[in-house]
Amino acid sequence: MLTLEPALRRRSSAGKIGLALAGGGPLGAFYELGVLHALEEVIVGRELTDYDMYVGVSSGSLLAAGLANRFDSTRIGAALIHGESTLAPFSPRLLLQPAIGEYARRFARLPRALRAGARQWSDEALGGLWPAVLGTLSRIMPLALFDSRPIERYLHELFSASGHSDEFRSLRTQLRVVATELDTGRSVVFGDAAHQNVRISRAVVASAALPGLYAPVSIGGRDYVDGALVRTMYASLALEAGCDFVICINPLVPFDGSAGRRRRALSDEGFDTVLGQTFRTLIHSRMQLGFASFRNRFPHADTILFEPDRHDELMFFSNVFRYSGRHRLAEHAYQQTRRDIRIRARPLAALLQRHDLDLDRKLLNDSRRTFSTAAHERSAHAQRATQQLTQALGRLEEFLARTEAG
Predict the structure, then answer these.
(1) In this structure, what DSSP letter does residue 216 have?
(2) What is Dmax (Cα atoms) for the chain?
(3) Which of 60-64, 87-91, 270-274, 339-343 is predicted least confidently?
(4) Which of 26, 47, 40 is nearest to 341 (CA)?
(5) CB contact set of 224 (below 8 Å; sequence gap of 6+)
(6) Quick check: helix, strand or coil at residue 160?
(7) Quick count: other Cβ atoms within 10 Å of Cβ 391?
(8) CB-hemisphere CA count at 13 Å for 127?
(9) Residue-by-residue DSSP string for 165-211
(10) How far is the C-alpha of 221 from the C-alpha of 144, rounded, in Å?
(11) From the CA atom positions of the chain, what is the Rg in Å?
(12) pTM to 2 decimals?
């Protein structure tokens, strides 16, 4: 679904362009990747890796950091989906490494927790055994199931490669990664003037540290967790920085099965499904309120929002930890985005022209295009470039040999 919010008062000339990516876990990241790939192909006039500002929260911060580091959607897709990156191939196992250290630390507290539980039971015997048991369990319960350090190491290796950087100051564009400070419940924006000393890779894992799944990330003596706990999408950061045009992508919307063929209620799908629907409903309502306010708060700015359809079962029930699930979801998001752009092509083109951008209608209307098409084209181009370079080096060697002989 594509929502357009044209500016109430247009400026005389095109200004800065920003991109804001919301969170949504692995599923959200692969959806956003499909949307970005479609935008990168059909919006011409400026490369997606050449925008003025990138804002990311939770899993969206990973893609925002990649784009700010000049990794286009094809290269990100090659790494995250196909595992074909020559720099650092990605494996979903990185997301699911058990937090062994956290388990050990909590287990070491068991004797002290048992003593505290026994004292509580003896002091409040009339209250029953269960309060003491629950109190003991709360003291030894691990803060997280999985370890985020393998993800941080992967991102550090990726961003430290030649031509890229793991430092905010070294980027040629602006990047903002938002996390929540655990002890205060406030949002912290890494990459702004007060928070530039942290590595980008560490800021990203802090922004994506969903409580219960990943432990809080310590930065400068403070603990940080998922940035989406306070706000879903921080497009206002780009608008406040002076961007006249901001593209927003939100991957999580509540599922509505009333118009489909589903006969089973969501409650029949299990606890995780009910929790997921609840979480989506809460964060989407907040996002709608924030997005609706942009037009009055920033009357000179154009904003557009891409989201999945609320009846989209694939977006709600996909398993992104299988290769087929990742590829299928990215392809689905890619095709749905192309469809939405075709439906709103005329008003979208008019809005884009205000910012010296346009739509490539030939690519947009090419029904043969797939998410993998660009990857194949890039591979073929690289092979041709390698062959041309090999031939040129061969001719140079022949020339040097003749020169020495002469």
Answers:
(1) P
(2) 106
(3) 87-91
(4) 40
(5) 179, 180, 181, 182, 188, 206, 207, 209, 216, 217, 218
(6) coil
(7) 10
(8) 14
(9) -SBGGG-SSEEEEEEEETTTTEEEEETSTTS-SSBHHHHHHHHT--T
(10) 19
(11) 24
(12) 0.82
